[in-house]
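Item description
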Amino acid sequence: MKTERRVDAPKRSSDWDIDPLRDFNDATQLIQAAIDEVFRAGGGRVDVGKGFYPIKGIRLRSGVTLHLESGAVLQASRDSADFDILGRDAVEPVGAEDYRLGRARLWTPPRGEDERTSPRLHISDPFSPWNDGIIRILGAHDVAIVGEKGSVIDGANGFNMNGEENYRGVHGISAFFATHLVLRGFTVRHTGNFAIRLHGCKDVVCEKVTALGGHDGVHARGCDNVRVEGCFLHTGDDAVAGFDNCGMIVRGCDISSACSAFRLGGRDILIEDCHAHGPCEYLFRGALPQQAKRDGLWDAATVPGRHSMATFFLYYCDYTMPVRQQPGNVVVRNCAVENAARLVRYNFGGETWQRARPLADIRLEGVKATGMWLPVAFNGGSSKDGDAPIDITMSECSLGFAKPQPEVFSVANVRTLSLADVTVSGVSAPLVRTWNGTPELRLSGVEGASPVVAKGEGTFECPMR
C-alpha cells in the first residue's frame, strides 16, 4: 500500500500579503520531512494543502508524488545560498568529493573553442551551484509533481550576483538523471533561471504546466523521450530550449516568448499544433537594468524592457556538453506563428550557440506564419569535418511579412530546398537569395513571390532581430 502524508500551511499571526522579502516562517522542513517519510516507506504521495509555504529548497525522491492542492503556493527565498541542499542531505547523501568538485569545477571549452568570454561553473555538473533549484530531483525514478489548478511554485525572480550574467538565481525544478518523471497541472512563475531544467532524464511527461516570466520555460539537455503537451509557456526568455534530446514531442502548447519560442536541437523532434505569438507580456530579463534584476522586478507597467519574439525556431547545439547523435529529423507541423521576427534562424558556425554539430534536415508542414519582419534564414555553415549542408522541406505553409524584405529565404550551404504549396504575402522580393553555392531547388505550387534565385553579395549575415 502506498503511503500518504499531508502538509498544511504554517500558521500566521495575521493575513499579510505574500512577500518574499518578509521574514520566512520557513515550511521547508515540513514538506521535506513528509517526502522523506514517504520515500523510506517505499513510495506514495505527499499532499500540500491550500496556503502559503515559504521554502528554501526541497529534494524530491524516488517513488514520491508531490501533490499541490488548489491554492497551495510554494514561495521561494530570493537568496540563492538557501538552495545549496545536496551536500547536507542525510537521507540520500551524495559523494563528498563529487560535491566538492561540483562547487569548484570550472568549465573549459573543448578543442580550444571560445564558447564564453570567461570560464564559469560547469552547467552539466549536477553539483554545480548553477543547477540549484527550488525543487531538486537527482537520480530518482517514478517521481512526480502534480498540481491542481491554482497551485503555484513562485521563484520571486531570485537573484545571485555570482550567478550567470551576474544576476541569475536558481531554477524552479532542476532534475538530473531522472526516469519516469511526471510534471502536471501546476504553475511555476518568476524563477531566477529556468522554470523547468531537465538534464539526462528519460521518459518525461510535462503536461498542462504553466510557466510565467522568468527565463526559459522548459529547458532539456541530453534527454530521451520527453513529451511537453498542453502547456502554457509565456516566458522572459526562450519558451522551449535545449539540445542533444532524442525523441522529443512538443504538442498543443500556447507559447509567447520575449526571446525565441523554440531554441532547440536534437534527433527526432516533433513540434505540432502549437500557437506561438508575440509580443510577450513578460520582459526579456537579460536586458533589464541590474538594479531591476536585483530587486526582482518584472511588471511592464513599472519597468521598461523588450517584449518582442525574435524567432519561432532557432537551432541550438553548442560545446557545453557532448552530443550523442547526429541532430536531424526535426518536424514542425500545423503550427500558427504570429509576430516573430523570423520563422526559422539556422546559422550553424555563425554564433556561439550553433557550433558543435550541424542539423541534417528540417521539415515544416502546415505552418502559418504572419507578421514576420526578417527573411527565413538557413546557413549550413561548416563543421570541423568540412561543409555541413542542410536539407529543408516546406509544404502547405503560408509566410506573411509585416514589411518588405530583400528576399523570402536567405540561404547558404544548403543542399536542397523543397517548397510545395507555399504561399507568400506582404513581399514581392526574390524567393531565394544564396551565398556559398546554390541549393537544389524543388518548387511546386509556390505563390506570392517571384521564383527568382538571386546571388547574395558580401558575407552571409543573420542577425537575431
Remarks:
- The CA atoms of residues 277 and 338 lie 5 Å apart.
